[in-house]
Design brief:
about 240 residues; mainly beta; seven-stranded antiparallel beta sheet; two-stranded antiparallel ribbon; 5 helices; 9 strands; about 30% strand
Length: about 240
């Protein structure tokens, strides 16, 4: 997590130690065109992606990963379609005894592009011992990898004769992990007037990621990157 103190161990555990990416206040100081609620100005509202788990989950500690957007995407593409071979019964047609949650695609796709920039963190000596000052935009990419399951915790038997297993992280395959993607925020007095979909709030799983690193430090640490994300939308029924 951004702002961690030195020697807290997070730098050595990218798969476990980075739950949420935050940014230097200097690059977030973008004024908003209009004031916030009741005359207060809270600045530009940024979107984010966060992992989702069922309401029945009783242990959510350290299970959520959140990818904050540095800049909101300039274009968001949403498509909806029907699939006769992959239909899900709506809740009102199902028996009360059927409490299962349909984990299938809902005939929709979402795509957008993000930009990340760690120039401030990489050039500020006071931040050299932070995650962002060490890894640059890899801090943001690792949160994305955690969010889609590419960073996979693994336990292996020790090779030095010790009976204890050692734990670590491996580069795994992308998984169908349900996530929320939220772009905007309605004013408080109107937040319940439209369904979530109409508020640019989407639920599904990421099916494609394209990362382009565009600038590097003298250590070949990526300072800037562009990320293309595509999602398959799912029914949010039964999820938080």
């Amino acid at each position: 997590m951004a702002g961690k103190k030195k020697n807290e161990g997070a730098v050595n555990l990218p798969g476990k130690g980075i739950w949420e990416n935050n940014f230097d206040p200097r690059i977030q100081s973008i004024p908003s065109y209009l004031p916030g609620e009741k005359g207060s100005n809270f600045g530009l509202k940024r979107g984010y992606m966060v992992t989702a788990f069922p309401k029945s989950s009783t242990s959510k500690t350290n299970r959520f990963y959140m990818l904050n957007f540095l800049y909101n995407p300039s274009a968001v593409s949403v498509n909806h379609s029907t699939d006769a071979a992959n239909q899900v019964m709506p809740p009102y047609t199902r028996s009360d005894l059927d409490t299962g949650v349909p984990l299938v695609a809902a005939g929709g796709t979402l795509s957008f592009a993000l930009l990340f920039d760690r120039t401030y963190e990489m050039s500020d000596p006071t931040k050299f011992d932070t995650i962002e000052g060490t890894y640059g935009v890899m801090a943001d990419v690792h949160v994305l990898y955690n969010l889609v399951g590419i960073n996979t915790p693994q336990e292996a038997q020790a090779t030095d004769g010790d009976d204890k297993a050692t734990s670590g992280n491996v580069l795994g395959i992308m998984q169908m992990s349900p996530v929320w993607c939220r772009f905007g925020q309605a004013r408080s007095s109107f937040k319940d007037q439209l369904p979530s979909l109409s508020r640019m709030e989407y639920f599904g799983y990421v099916n494609n990621i394209g990362i382009t690193y565009t600038h590097f430090s003298q250590r070949m640490t990526p300072v800037r990157c562009a990320v293309d994300i595509s999602m398959t939308l799912m029914s949010s029924y039964g999820w938080v």
